[in-house]
Every structure is written in structure tokens, then in C-alpha cells.
Task: structure prediction
Amino acid sequence: MPTLTAKKSPRPTKRAQGRPLPELIFGDLWEFDPSPETADPKLKARYDLFIDGKFVAPASGKYFDSINPANEQKIAELALGGAADVEAAYRAAQKAQETVWGKMPGRERAKYLYRIARLLQDRAREFAIAETMDNGKPIKETRDFDVPMAAAHFFYHAGWADKLEYVAPGRRVAPLGVVGQVIPWNFPLLMLAWKIAPAIAMGNCVVIKPATNTPISAVKLAEIFQDAGLPPGVVNVITGPGSTGGLIMTHPTAAKIAFTGSTEVGKVIMRSVAGTDKRMTMELGGKAANIVFDDAPLDQAVEGIVNGIFFNQGQVCCAGSRLLVHEPVAERVVAKLKNRLRALRVGNPLDKNTDVGAIVSRGQLETVQDYINIGVKEGAELWQPPCRLPAKGFYLPPTIFTGVSQSHRIAREEIFGPVLAIITFRTVDEAIEKANNTAYGLSAGVWTDKGSRILKMSTELKAGVVWANTFNKFDPTSPFGGYKESGFGREGGRQGLLDYCKLV
Amino acid sequence: MTRLPITKTPKVYVGGAFIRSESARVYPLKDAAGNFYANIPQCTRKDLRNAVEAAAKAGPGWAKRTAYNRGQILYRLGEMLEARAAEMAEAIMIGGASKAAAAREVEASVDRLIYYAGWTDKYEQVLGNVNPVAAPYFNFTVTEPMGIVGVLAPEEAPLLALVSLVAPAITSGNTVVALASTAQPYPAILLGEMLATSDLPGGVVNLLTGFRKEMVPTFATHTHLRALVGVADAEERKALALGAADSIKRLSLTKAEEPTDWFADAAQSVYAVRATLEFKTTWHPIGA
Amino acid sequence: MLARSPHAALRRLFDEVGTVDAVGVEERVAKYGTRSIKKTSKLWGLKTAVSMVDLTTLEGKDTPGKVASLCQKALQPHDAALGVPQVAAVCVYPAMVKHARKALGRDATVRIASVATAFPSGQAPLKTRLAEVKAAVADGADEIDMVINRGAFLAGEFGEMQDEIRAVVEACGQARLKVILEVSELETYDNIRAASFLAMRVIRPGDFIKTSTGKTSLNATLGNNQVMIEAIRDYYLDTGIAIAMKPAGGIRTAKQALTFLIAIKETLGDAWLNNTRYRFGASALLNDLIRQIEKEKTGAYQAPYYFSEATESY
Result:
């Protein structure tokens, strides 16, 4: 590379032809010993439904197993909730809302939410381990992100409960009544917090179903509801299969429903409540473009790309699953990305050094593997860093595809796994066009040194969340939600509260 | 023979430490029956000067904490006060209040702290905004704490009024130097201990005790105090306003002769937070 | 002719080598702190760190006796049964080099590094700075730690800055060179990256770039270490030239040292995990490393006063 001085440098600065390219060695010179998190997740062998402040057996008398995707071992048995249980839950919720919760002054409701936040902080380690065992995500993530963020959501919303006159300027707000909520398996505890905290801060009561794959944090959180003295019926937890979720979404008592999950299922739910008066919010899928310009700080952009698609094993609705990279720096970015991926550690999620854990289930693993095969068949070029995957459990190496075109299925469909499709662009307008060329619109990333370009991109991108020079950042104060088929409604911030009240 | 308890030496909480006045002066605190209770530090303008310096040192760090962190600390202050509610009620009873009235004042003070704890990460969403200017600029208005705020507490409601004046100021990242009630200083002495155990960094809140006549003139003229909030009588208000003019202090004072009902909902509001906030508007072009 | 502004020159340099997002860097290095290094890997890390220490004394009140004592510790940091390796080098002022050579002997495997070029400020005429380098090498220094001309850098006089480094390279002869950027005075990560490239382009394979003199209030941090090793990596991948790295000052605990080694492992890879390519400029660090090695061996936490020169007995 030429220097800026007039003098010639004393040694050749270009590689002589024929010499091998310099490479970095990411080998096993300094192998880390296993460092498993060994604290007790305090799991019971069997959990019941949580209705009206008590743990009760399911009407069916049946239970289903929850397994640990890291080693395919059973963790616990969960109650198989059905129609009768959903009915009982809505009855309890309605009674609680009309006689207790809806009448309670906001500042007292706030204190319950504060207690829940504090108790979750007290038991943070236990919840982190349980979540890792149920979902397969690394303990580093549950410990440093999922659990603290869930506590923060309760803490933030606690403070709104007695300040509701500021939520809608010019109008008073009132709770909707009882809300039915169904949440996904990718952030089980955090999704509980995102749904429950604003709903009850606003004075509503809740019937909620965790994902069939990941019910553990919900029933443990119910223990905290009891310890906090939350009045019976304010939150009711029904574990069970997808069909039970459908019952919760369509129950006549629900004044509002909230769903986070795939766009496909979101459409099914919307059809099933068509013709009713139910309010709803949908937080659905995504195929976010992470856009890197040639003036971006490249190493930090690479970190953002990695965070964007390998955080939570890529099982994130707002994942940066398409990398749109400016042609002048495409080769350099991909080279840096490959070096960075070689330092990622895939393995036992309970090991404190693991960066990429297990995929949540065999079914999801197969789905993602199918997409990888499709990508190869479509003609894109596959690359994966060398990793040693555990023999048991559901694991995939981080995967990138170069040579991807907009028409490829791997560029259009949501894969929901650690697979990145890399596409190039030449101009700002082309980047915008490619980024918006999708039915989804949840999130986007922009990497550039130029402030005015950030603001232009933010203006033009059809996405509910735009991250500039960062990615996958969340905060209880920051509204989150999508455009187009990524859903409607917002969670977090003042905007999020408006979806849980009526204006009077 | 019954055991003789040892008595506590009241000290004031300044710069995260508990100190006597630099003058070494004290004034006696007597209970409602006229019995001696304790010697209270009789602070001077030099104590005020030192407190302002401590507040200045703590300011940048406190303002840079995340709003969430400030909220958690204020909440913890509430936890500390709730845990020692009985002791604090006794401090209020020194002045003659009934047990019930004292307990009510402590409860209201805890709730007030929790109220402001819940504002730290929300007032920005209510008071700040994005402005749709008629040109291709992104234009946004954000708030910023003013800096060091002087607080003059009234004689009545020795805990609740003090908390109601201090909490909104520190919610946003200001630091505070407060003068407690002269007649009923003991709650402020205890409040200092609770502040010290609440994870609040030293110097963010500094509580002084003493006589208003000796302290108010320096509150008025110390140019590093950027705002003054609290209660003052007509003569004091005049003096404070004249002093404020010299350095363009912002004043937010209520009249001592028209006492506030500190227990009312109107005594807590996001507008109390607003009283010690600056507003900054930034423009940035939107374009490739 | 257009007036040359320092700003324009700097901007062109940034465009060439790239800029750095500070928040992003801090986030990246925070991840290193979450690594959990235990047992055998911890022992390996601790011993490797010891072997990378440039055991330093740079005080006005240094005496031949102090330097001799330092050299003894460098040769044998603790009682032999613990298996602690020797350190990489001792680092002293030029006037002390001959005393270090006397204490270490001619064939020591522990090297002698001398600061030179009017360390730490560098504010002396070039002639005297170069004379200092030559004198230190003549007295027996194996390595020279120089300071760059920060004034020239900040004024956009990159040519002058690089010419001075070239002159020092020449004055070093066979001695290895470490180029101190003085990160606290460069202030921004953009400047640190740019200065790293300017220096690397005029030194030899195996020479070092170094964070700081240790004489200001901000020394080596994970952040500036990261910026510099990313520059080293990019330069290596572009040219095949391997430059070495030395963070100095501010690394006092074994835990910190291990975290810096993790940064190396994940950014530069295995080839930089040795004392030819990485050093720690430190003094108190050595005892903490030995304490932790002892703890790994016995299982018990150690009091500091069991280790020489850490005599406070509280």
C-alpha cells in the first residue's frame, strides 16, 4: 500500500506473484478447558398450569415432555392445557380485572411489577440456566441479555402504571380488559416480559401460552408471580400445543390478542378472528437487510453482521439475514467475516465460552438444513468455518452464502437459523431497492460513516427498526415492531403502551 | 441496673461521607417536650462551598449513568427508606408529630421516591421530541440536566418536602445541595444514611443543616449552582432573585406563606423534573 | 498550490486505512471479558503471559542496585519448583542499560529493552534522540522502545513522523524496535489506527508497535489494543509482514492479562501467542501472574506478601 510521503518505501509492499496468501491461524494452540455453568436451575419434575394464582392440574390429566436441545434429554413434564383450562383461565382473568386489578390505583399496580422485576433479578442465574436448557441458547446470552432484559422490561413498565395520563396526549386511557397472548420459542422469558409487563401495567389481565417447545421459563415466572403476591387471575399461564394457542386467540372474552411468531401463523390467526371486535397486534417474521457501505468502519460492521445473524443461532425475527454489501468492499468484508467466524465457538450451551448454541428442536434443525441444501442447489456458494459439533443435540455451524441473487429462495424466505445470504450492490438507491424488495419489513441495518446517509437510509427503508452502525439492540424504552407482513403494533416505549389501552 | 444506650452523633451527608461543619459549630435540637435530643451541625457558607464542589465532581458521572440505572438507584433508596420506616417515623416524631402522622409521611415519601424512580427512563419520551422542520433536516429536541441544583426545604414536612424537592432534580442527572428544615433536621440526618446505602454515588446529593439566614445568601450568589428549587419567604425570594440575576440562575420557588400540601398528587409531576432540565435541539441533514 | 491542512491529510489517511466506530470496539472487547479460562488453559495462559512480560522500571530514582534486583527477578521470577518461565525482557532507561547487561550477563535469554528518543515526551532534537539510541545499543540493549513524534502526526506531517522512525530503525542496527504511539495523546481510535499503519509501513518484520509510555493517565486498554491488533492483522493480510504488538501500562492483574491474550487469540490467531509477537509492558503484573499460578497449583488464594517486592502485609 503506498504511503503518503513522496519517498519510496524500502521494501516491496505488494506480494510477489506466486507466493501464498498470508493467513491467520485459528488453531488449537490455546484450547480452553470446559467451563460449564453449574448452578442449580431449580427445576421441578412436573409443572402444572397456573390459573387464578394457583398451580392446577390440566383438565385432560395429560402432560408432555420438554427436552433440552443441547443433549436431547428430558428436562421436565408440562401440563397439556386444553379448552376447559383456557375457559377457566379467561374466567379468572376477567374476574381479577373487573374486581381487583382494574380498580387498583396505578401506583399500587406498579409495586407488583417492581417486585416481579426485583425477584427476577434475585433469581437471575437460576432463570438463565433454565432458559439455556430449554431453548439451547448459550448461557452467556441468557445470563447477559435475556434475563436482565426481561427484568428491565418489568422495571420500565412498572414506572408507567401510575403515569398513564402521559401516554396519550389529549386523551385519557383505560385498560381493554383481558388480553390473550401467544409467544414464540426464540426468546421465551423475554417474550413473556414483553407481553405481560405493558399489559398489566395498563390494568389489563392476561391469559398467555408459551411456545410448546419452550414452556419452562413461563411456569417458573409464575412462581415469581406467587412470591410477589400478584393478585390471583392477573396473569394465567397455559402450557400446551399450538392448538391451545388458537383457542386463546379466539376466545370471546379476549378484548385484545397479541401474537409473536411466523407470518404464516399470524395470517391464520387473523383469519380466525375476522369479524370479531378483537384488537390485535402481530409481531411476525422478517428478512432484514444489513447494509454495509464502503466507508463503514469495517471491523465493527463485521461484528454487527455476526451479531445480526448468529446471535441466538439466527433464530430471531429481526435477524440481519441478508448482507447487502457495497461492491468496493465486498471481498474485504467477506474475508474479515470468515476470519471472525473462525473464532466463534459452537457447542454446549451451558459452557460459558460457547458463542453459538443448539438449534431449538429437531424440526427447526431440519428446516434450516433444508434451506442450506436449497441454497447450494440454487447455485450460491456455501462457506462454513470448521467446527466440532457435539454428537448429540441439534447443532449447525454458522453458514454464509456468497453469490446470492435477489431471486434465490435463500434471499427471500425466512430461514430462522444461522444462515447468511450475501448480496452486493453498487449505489445507495440500489441498496434501498434491494433492501425493500421483500414482503417483510421488520428491521434493517445501515453501516456507514456518513450521518446524512444514515438518516436518508432510515427515511427510505421500509422497516420498523433501523439500526445504524449497530445491530440487534433492544431496550424497554425503544418501540419494536414491523412494517408490511412483519406485522403491526409496537412493543416497548410509549408507543407500545398505546396498543394495550383504549382512548376515552 | 438497666443498660444505658449510647447516643448517636448527627453528622451531615456531603460528598458521600458524614461530616461535621467546618466551623465545628452545632445547635441543640430539642424534642417537642423541650428535652435535649442531639447537637446538629450548624453549617456555614464554606460547608455549602465544599458541598457544591462535591456535587460538581459527582455530576458528570451521574449524568452519564443510564436512565435505567438512575431509576434502579432511586428505587433502592425507596427500599432503604421502607426498611427503616419505623426509625424514620421516630425522627419525624421528635418535632411533636403523632405516630400515625409520622408513619403517613414516611409512606408518602417512599411512594414519592418510587414515582420518580419510574420517570428516569420515561420523561425524555414525554418532554423531548422530533420536530418536522420545513427543510431536509432531521431535527430533534432532547433534554439535559442543568448541573448542580440548590434545594431549600421548608420547615414543615421535614422528610416528605425534602424528598419531593430532591428526587425530581436527581432523576435526570442533576446533583443537589440541599438545606434541610432548621427546626426539624433529624429526618435529613437519617436520609443521608439511606442515601449512602442506596448505591447512589457520593456527591450526587449533599444535605446540609443549619440556619437559613446564614445559608440563603450563599445559595443566592454561588454561581456554580445553576438552579434553585424549594420554598422561601418573600424576603428570601427577593434576595435569591437578586443573587440569581448575577449568574442567570433558574429559579423554581414556591411561597412559604402559601404552604404546599405535600401529600397531594399535585406535589409530584414530570414538570418538577422539567424544572431543572435544559433543552437541546440538533439539526442534521438527511441525504445520501 | 493548495494550502495543506492537517485535517485534509488526516482525512485522506482515514479514507485509505478506514475508520473505527468506538462504541462498536468497546462492545467487541467486552465480549473478551466474558470468556472463562480455567485449569490447564488458565495455567497455560498465565505462564505464557509471564514469558511475555517486559519487566519494567522507569523511575527517576532508579539505581544500579534496583536494576540488578529487577534482572534477578526477570531471570527467576519465583522459586523454581513452580515452573514459572523467565520473562521476555527487562525495560529500563538508557543510563541503566549497562547495569542491566552486567546483571544479566552476555548470553542471557532475557533481553534488555531500553527506552530511548527522549522518552517519554520525545521533545528533543532528532540528533540527540538518535545518539541516545546508538548509545543504548552500544551499552548492550537488544531492543529499543522509541516514541513517535505526536506533534508531527497531529499536524498532518506524516512524512516527518515516518522519516524519524526510519532514522531510528537505522540507528538500531540489529536491535529490535518498538514504536510507541502514545495512545492517550492521539486520543481517538481513528488516529490510533492511522498512526499504526504509518509506523508499520516503515519498520521491519518482527518490530513492534506499542500503545503507551505508561507515563500518562491513560495507557493500554482492551479498546486501543484491539484497534492496534486489527491494524496489524490487516497489514499482515495485505503484505505478509508480521508486526508485533506491545500494550504497556495499566495492565496490573493476571485477569486483565488473560483477557488481552484472548483478544490476540481471536483477532490475530495462534501465530501471535508468543513473546516474539506479543509483550506486556508491566511491573506489578508479574507478581499477580505468579500469585495466580501458585493458586492454580495449591488451590488456595495467596496473600501478596509471599511474592518478592510485594511487601505490604495488610
